[in-house]
Task: structure prediction
Amino acid sequence: MASYSGDKNAYLKRLRRIEGQVRGLQRMVEEDKYCIDVLTQVAAATKALQAFSLELLDEHLATCVVQAAAAGGDEADEKVREASEAIARLVRS
Result:
């Protein structure tokens, strides 16, 4: 089961809001809005996705990784490796 299941509705609500921001960007381009205005909205959508990612990562660390670490063994090593790789992807993006 996913660690975010308890907050699934809240996560979906945030993603829908971000989806709306992206649709707004499409509309702006279709309407030939000023480049700087479009870029400002791109930055806002990017920040929203970053905040979403960090919250999801925090949830994963607090649940999945902590539980695996408590169990120990190969599962713990795997969860820590997965989390490290996810963090590296977020830092590069």
